[in-house]
């Protein structure tokens, strides 16, 4: 089995269980992106897993957001698979794999963490522990990895704009009601439910499963150009001098450390931004 830096993997009944373990807090940085670049092509192999379940080893964080200090570095790693320095196109490539992908979310999934979950085919979350947010507007940025494309299709215009423009935290029950996720479940029931569903799907003939997924992608997955445009806007925004000042001010508050800022970003981001 392939060795990964940030993924603990096990294979069971046609299902690959991939637990994200990237201390100190599962930031989307070069190591995790490299592991995704390695994993994604394997999901198209004939003898590859039929279903993949992504979860987190960290009880507080699924993926909180990108590593803001290594944007250029991880984007160049993504280019090794998709030909362009774009996390959005990397996540879109994940959406197109033959394998069915499921995000099992406990902890915070904000920014690119939310976008990673949205790139998966299905999302199930802990009612007590999962938190969702698209925090980019609070930095003066626009989501660059598919958040706009997915949320507009899942939620509709009004709710998507609320999620995107507020940069606020959303609990799992609200996320379910808005369409961000498939279901919120009691934390004790989450992993057994997802494992049962994954194994059930993996048991079915792969041709039908893959045909359904392919047709679904043709109907509701945004084009490469749409993802590319969003990715470019994020990159431009991250280089804007005023936005860089804002990012620096937020960083001084404790961003990217295991403290109050990251745990309560939805509340504190608005206060810091003011």
Report the average pLDDT across residues: 92
Work out the oligomeric state of the chains in this entry: single chain
User: For the terminal residues, how far apart are their CA atoms?
Assistant: 49 Å
| Main sheet overview | 6 strands, mixed
Q: H/E series, N to C?
A: EEHEEHHEEHEEHHEHEHHHHHH
User: Looking across the biggest beta sheet, what order are the strands in?
Assistant: 1-2-3-5-7-10
Q: What fraction of residues sit in β-strands?
A: 15-25%
Based on Cα principal axes, name the global outline: globular
Question: What is the count of β-strands?
Answer: 10
Structural class: alpha/beta
Low-confidence segments, given as residue ranges, are none
What is the percent of helical residues?
40-55%
Output the number of helix runs: 13
CA radius of gyration is 17 Å
Could you describe the 3D structure shown?
The chain has 274 residues and is of the alpha/beta class. The chain is 51% helix and 16% strand. It has 13 helices and ten strands. The strands form two sheets. A six-stranded mixed β-sheet has the order 1-2-3-5-7-10, sandwiched between helices. Strand 2 (15-20), helix 1 and strand 3 (51-56) form a beta-alpha-beta unit. It starts with 6 loop residues before the first strand and ends with a helix.
State the gist of this model:
With 274 residues, the protein is an alpha/beta fold. The chain has helices at 30-42, 71-82, 87-95, 112-119, 147-155, 157-166, 172-178, 187-203, 206-220, 224-239, 241-252, 260-263, 265-273; strands at 7-12, 15-20, 51-56, 61-63, 100-105, 108-110, 122-126, 131-133, 170-171, 183-185. It starts with 6 loop residues before the first strand and ends with a helix.
């Amino acid at each position: 089995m392939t060795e990964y830096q940030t993924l603990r993997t096990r294979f069971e009944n046609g299902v690959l269980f991939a637990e994200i373990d990237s201390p100190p807090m599962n930031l989307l940085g070069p190591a995790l992106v490299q592991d995704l670049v390695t994993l994604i092509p394997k999901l198209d192999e004939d003898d590859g897993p039929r279903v993949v379940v992504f979860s987190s080893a960290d009880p507080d964080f699924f993926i909180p957001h990108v590593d803001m200090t290594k944007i250029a570095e991880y984007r160049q790693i993504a280019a090794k698979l998709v030909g362009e320095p774009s996390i959005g196109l990397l996540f879109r490539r994940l959406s197109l794999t033959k394998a069915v992908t499921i995000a099992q979310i406990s902890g915070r999934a904000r920014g690119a963490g939310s976008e990673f979950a949205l790139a998966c085919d299905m999302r199930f979350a802990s009612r007590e522990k999962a938190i969702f947010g698209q925090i980019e507007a609070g930095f003066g940025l626009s989501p660059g990895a598919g958040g706009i494309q997915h949320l507009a299709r899942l939620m509709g215009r009004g709710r998507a704009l609320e999620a995107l423009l507020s940069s606020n935290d959303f609990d799992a029950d609200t996320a379910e009601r808005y369409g961000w996720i498939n279901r919120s479940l009691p934390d004790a029931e989450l992993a057994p439910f997802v494992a049962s569903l994954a194994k059930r799907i993996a048991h079915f003939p792969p041709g039908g499963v893959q045909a359904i997924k392919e047709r679904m992608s043709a109907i509701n997955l945004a084009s490469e150009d749409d993802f590319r445009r969003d990715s470019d806007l994020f990159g431009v925004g991250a280089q804007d001098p005023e936005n860089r000042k804002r990012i620096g001010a937020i960083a001084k508050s404790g961003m990217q450390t295991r403290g109050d800022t990251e745990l309560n970003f939805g509340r504190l981001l608005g206060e810091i931004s003011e």
